[in-house]
Design goal:
alpha/beta, Rossmann fold, 2 domains, six-stranded mixed β-sheet, 11 helices, elongated
C-alpha cells in the first residue's frame, strides 16, 4: 500500500495526544470525585461493566478519527474487483489433428465440452464470439449474449486441413474492432491499398480513417481473446505479427495448448500427418500481449484451464484508491461511538 498524499499522515500524531488528553481528563474527574465521602458507594453502584462501557465510545471515536486521517492521505492498494470485460472471443483450432484421441474422447470433443462449460460459467452480461480456424479463419458466431447460439456454433465445427493461428488472431481482432479496417486477406495475400483506407463490405474503399496509434499491451480491458490450438502454424498470417497487432491494440490473447508437445504422427482415413504443439510461439503470443499460456494435456486439465480463465476474466486484481472505503468506515465508527454514548450515558462522548 502507498499514499498519494502521504503528508496528511502527520496528523496521526494527534491520536496519542488525544489519548493523553483523555487520561488527563479521567484523572481530573477522579480527583473531583474524592471530595465525596461516599465514593465507595458510587463505585459500587457503577459496577465493573459500567466502568468498561464508558471507555468504549472514546475508543471508537479515536478509531474513526484515525480512519478518516488515513483516508485523507489517499491510500492505494491492490484489491480484487469485478472485471470490465464485455466481450471474449474464443478462437478454436478445427484442423484435422484435433481428431487425435490422446485427449479423451478426442481433442475436438474435449475442447468443445470445455468451451461450453466456460461459456456457461461466464456472467450473463459478457458477450462471446466464436472464431474457428484451420487453413483459414472465420467468425462462426459473432459476439452475442445468447448462450444457445454459442453452443450451437461450437457443436457445428467441421474439421479441415492446415493451421492458420495468426489468421485466427487477426480475425478475432477484426470482430472486436469492426470499424478498424483490419483485412486478413490483405495480410495473407499481400493485396495493397493506401495506408489508412478501410474496405467496406462490398470491398470498395471508404474514406481514410484516423491514423492508428498503438496503446500499451494489455491496456484494453473491454475484451480478450482465448486461442486454443493443438499444432503449429502452417499457413496464413505470421503468428507473432498477429500477436503484435493485438498488443498494439491492448488486447490480451490467452493461449491454450492441447495435445502432443514433442510431436507425433497421426493417421486418419488413409492419410497421415506429423503434428507438434508449438509451445514456444504460443508462450510468446501470451507474453507479448500481457496474457498467459496454459498447457492442457488431458480433458480434465483442459476443463481446469477454462475454469482458471473464467476466474481471470471475471475478477481482476488492480491497484485502486480505497479512500472512500476508509472514509465510510470512519463515519460508521463515529456514528456508533455517538450512538452508544447516547444510549448508555445520555450524552455524546
Amino acid at each position: 500500500m502507498h499514499f498519494l498524499w502521504p503528508e496528511f499522515l502527520w496528523l496521526l500524531l494527534l491520536a496519542p495526544l488525544l489519548v493523553l488528553l483523555y487520561v488527563w481528563l479521567l484523572r481530573r474527574k477522579k480527583k473531583a470525585a474524592l471530595r465525596y465521602a461516599s465514593l465507595s458507594i458510587v463505585r459500587e453502584a457503577m459496577g465493573t461493566g459500567q466502568s468498561i462501557k464508558r471507555h468504549i465510545p472514546p475508543v471508537l471515536f479515536l478509531l474513526a478519527l484515525t480512519a478518516l486521517i488515513v483516508a485523507a492521505a489517499r491510500p492505494m492498494a491492490v484489491i480484487s474487483l469485478p472485471s470490465q470485460q464485455e466481450t471474449i472471443i474464443l478462437a478454436m483450432d478445427v484442423s484435422g489433428s484435433m481428431r487425435a484421441t490422446d485427449v479423451q474422447p478426442n481433442r475436438l470433443v474435449a475442447a468443445q465440452n470445455a468451451a461450453k462449460a466456460f461459456i456457461a460459467d461466464l456472467p450473463r452480461n459478457v458477450r462471446v464470439g466464436i472464431v474457428a480456424f484451420a487453413g483459414t479463419a472465420q467468425v462462426v458466431q459473432p459476439a452475442t449474449l445468447s448462450r444457445e447460439d454459442l453452443v450451437t456454433a461450437i457443436d457445428k465445427f467441421q474439421l479441415q486441413r492446415a493451421t492458420a493461428i495468426g489468421s485466427a488472431i487477426v480475425v478475432s481482432l477484426a470482430e472486436l474492432f469492426p470499424d478498424a479496417g483490419i483485412d486478413v486477406g490483405a495480410m495473407t495475400y499481400g493485396r495493397e491499398r493506401p495506408r489508412g483506407v478501410a474496405l467496406d463490405k462490398a470491398g470498395t474503399d471508404k474514406e481514410p480513417k484516423k491514423e492508428f496509434v498503438p496503446v500499451a499491451p494489455g491496456s484494453y480491458t473491454s475484451a480478450a481473446v482465448i486461442l486454443l490450438t493443438d499444432g503449429q502454424r502452417t499457413t496464413g498470417v505470421d503468428t507473432l505479427e498477429a500477436a503484435k497487432m493485438a498488443a498494439d491494440r491492448g488486447v490480451r490473447v490467452y493461449t491454450v495448448g492441447v495435445g502432443t508437445v514433442d510431436g507425433e504422427t497421426i493417421g486418419f482415413e488413409g492419410w497421415s500427418m506429423r503434428v507438434r504443439l508449438d509451445e514456444e510461439t504460443l508462450k510468446a503470443v501470451a507474453t507479448r500481449t500481457q496474457a498467459e499460456y496454459f498447457y492442457a494435456g488431458t480433458a480434465e486439465n483442459l476443463k481446469k484451464v477454462y475454469e482458471t480463465l473464467s476466474s481471470r476474466l471475471t475478477v481482476v486484481k488492480k491497484e485502486t484508491e480505497i479512500s472512500a472505503l476508509l472514509a465510510l468506515a470512519g463515519a460508521a465508527l463515529a456514528l456508533l461511538s455517538a450512538g452508544l454514548s447516547l444510549a448508555w450515558f445520555n450524552r455524546i462522548l
